[in-house]
Amino acid sequence: MSAGRRLKGLGYVVLGIVVGVALSVAARWPRSEVVYRSDQPPAVDYADGSEHALALVRESALLGESHQIVVGRDPGFSYGHRVDVDASFGSVRMTEWTSAGVRVGFATGHEVFIPARYFIGGR
Q: How far is the C-alpha of 100 from the C-alpha of 40, rounded, in Å?
């Protein structure tokens, strides 16, 4: 085999490795997934007169994943008040909306309370 053919073959191997790494990175690129959603019930009103929603969002990235509670007026959860929660809390077992705020209970027994003042008014 000539040196030119060996060099060309090596080029294909290197190209294959680069494409494989690129596909692996693209597959693990940061992404968000709403794993739980709760909408403010009609019986609960807040001073801003808006409808609010809460989501447990899983953020996946190259270095692992994180979980956040997002609560606010945006139904797509691109903005709002965010609270980091430990992934070990498990799934959400209940959400309780009151005029004072919203309480989220997890399968492990952990609870997180978010006062209304942090998510009303567009925050």
A: 12
C-alpha torsion 47→48→50→56, nearest 10: -80
Q: Which residue has the tokens 């060099």?
A: 7
Q: What is residue 73's predicted lDDT score, i.e. its pLDDT?
A: 95
CA nearest to 81, candidates 105, 101, 110, 61? 101
Contacts of 52 (CB under 8 A, 6+ apart): 39, 40, 46, 71, 72, 73, 102, 119, 120
4: left (phi over 0), alpha (psi -120 to 50) or beta: alpha
pLDDT, tens digit (0-9, with 9 covering 90-100), for 65-115 = 899 999 999 999 999 999 999 989 999 999 999 999 999 999 999 999 999
Task: Give the side-chain half-sphere CA count within 13 A for 25.
Answer: 6
